[in-house]
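Sample entry (454 residues):
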Amino acid sequence: MAATSMDQLVSLCKRRGFIFQNADIYGGQQGVYDYGPLGVELKNNLKNAWWRAMVYERDDVEGLDAAILTNRKVLKYSGHEDTFSDPMCDCRKCKGRFRADHITDGKCPNCGSTDLTEPRPFNLMFKTQVGPVESDENLAYLRPETAQAIFTQFKNVVDATSRKLPFGIAQIGKSFRNEITPRNFIFRVREFEQAELEYFVLPGEDEKYHELWKEARINWWLEQGLVKEHMNIYTTPHDDLAHYAKACYDIEYQFPHGMEELEGIANRRDYDLGNHTKAQEEFDLEAHCHANPDSTTKLCIRDEENGKWVIPFVIEPSMGVDRGVLAVLTEAYTEEDLGEGNSRIVLKLKKHLAPIKVAIIPLKKNSEAIMQKCHELKNKLMKLGIGRVALENTGNIGKAYRRHDEVGTPLCLTVDFETLENTPESVTIRDRDTMQQQRVNTADLPSFLREYFL
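Predicted structure, serialized as tokens:
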């Protein structure tokens, strides 16, 4: 079964080295988390799965890795300086600050007081200074989303790749939002990672591709181990849409704290490219786009059918990587009753997401011959390219199995005295989910593991 509380996940993540509170020795920094030895592996595996699906397995998407520091003009013309804010209230009694839309019954979530200030907008972007002199001219931002660099680099990518519509530009990277009230572990944080695709289409074809990308992203999440029963598609009402959006679907997931957004698929129309474009008189833009006296470039592409220059519409599947990690952990977390008072916690992660693919366990850690064979096998298996192979040298095989059940390792490989004495040489392989064991000849291990993982 899935985890029933956030406390279970937080405990597992700290105990097994997935996720730690940032600056924990100083009391922690609210809304900022560090990924530990296994967490960074899980997160990288999820990002790699996204990149493979978005870029490698498609013929119409290119990649980008843009800077975090963002020119102020980019966020001025994108609308973020004026609109990227949340309503904030102060509690006059306990001095706490909260998002107004998170307050229920007019009471402070902290102390219960009703003596609250009127809501006022709070800009979520982190400001910084570029260069040695602090001034308005040197003001920049830590990017609040990865998308804007894709739009401002649109022409350079088109010129370098000769792409034709429809096509996309994908990017994975850090974003920063000065959340008023970070909450629910890594669900809402101030520093997070996004995986975003901007998919450019001809005006008039945007609604068709919006539907196609919704279905594609649902199917991708199912491949990562989520189940439909724990997911929901929310259509954002027109009045609640972001300033750039024509329409938006949210893929929601049943997190331990409730059904909330995992990924958004937005129809951003021609808002961004239009607002970053030098001159617009020759283009049939919607009324929300305005003249940009600061841009030096027309962000447009030629329509192959009629030869006219157009500013494309954009469909944007935008995934929160940290929320994705939380979702797959929630879905994979399982407590099993083994009978006779025994139980186990097991992370039933998909094989490609597991932080450790194979754990090599010596039956006796003090045996020099067994340890030498373990090291030989690890060096051999690491060359297969299946992912991380770990040597588990605890000396207690039962505890080693339980540890690797908890961290989601699909296979445990035990080297025992039979491995050294028998001909042909063999090892015991234990399956995480079934706990069944089988003997496999060491000469057959490469083909066995390639077939299992690849």
